[in-house]
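call fold(seq) -> tokens
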Amino acid sequence: MEARQPFPGIEPYESGLLEVGDDNRIYWETSGNPHGRPALVVHGGPGSGGGRGGRARFDPNAFRIVLFDQRGCGESLPHASDPCIDMAHNTTERLLADMELLREHLGIEQWLLYGGSWASTLILAYAQRHPHRVTGIVLVGVTMTRPQEIDWLYHGLRLLLPVEWERFRTGVPLADRDGNLVEAYRRLMEHRDPGVREAAAREWCAWEDAVIAHETLGTPGQYSAEPDAAQLAFVRICTHYFARAAWLDDGQLLRDAHRLAGIPGILIHGRLDLSAPLLTAWELAQAWPGAELRIIDDSGHTGSPAMQAAILDAIARFAD
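ret:
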């Protein structure tokens, strides 16, 4: 059978900036069928902003497609690239509240949740808190932002990428190089000197690109290719969240996976994913009643044609 293809590009029929408190406004948009099945696209990062290409994964005749930019990134305001913006109001707890506020604003009772990487952490936290609001979940490149996952990505991977990791390590002051590198980069991203912030963002993105450089079927080099303001916001928000393990108790999302019972879920994960090793997705599938794990042998964190086909197939299963 021929693999599914993305749907033709569409534009939103409605969009806006939603006041969510703390002087923040989040960008949102809806496209597809206004009377279709509601589906929320949650972006990764944290701080990447919602790529508009997510619309193409949904049948526009079947779904009411909702995209939004999380606090501080994308088209949401204020933008975290501005060093004057206080990051104290950008937390997992507030993002969960923003999602609920958006659901209420759009008059949606229940929705399908779709997203990858950091988005899977946010989706799991939301669904465990509001299971009656969720009709289904599709996760790609599963993460739960546990301390062990953060430590692997920014310290443990030196086993496989020693040259690139040493460059990443030397991007922080000498006194910080044998400590918590994520916290060290977080402090650099709050430095008053714009040159310091820009250099730290470049080195962080260079490391992220090194981790996905082998993914020739995906999109290697995507982090450093972002515009300067987007890089600054991405790295500032990432370090802000990862230095605190997203304010989640260690193992919380896995421990509370039983709360997802009754919610159908499809987990799609690349076997070649160095950023988020397969173990996390496998552990979640074991703990979540009704979850299905699909392993894509030729894919890393940024996907492949086979992964794209698996995503399109998974979403289509929720179209009826």
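The beta strands are 14-21, 24-32, 37-42, 63-68, 111-117, 134-142, 265-270, 291-296.
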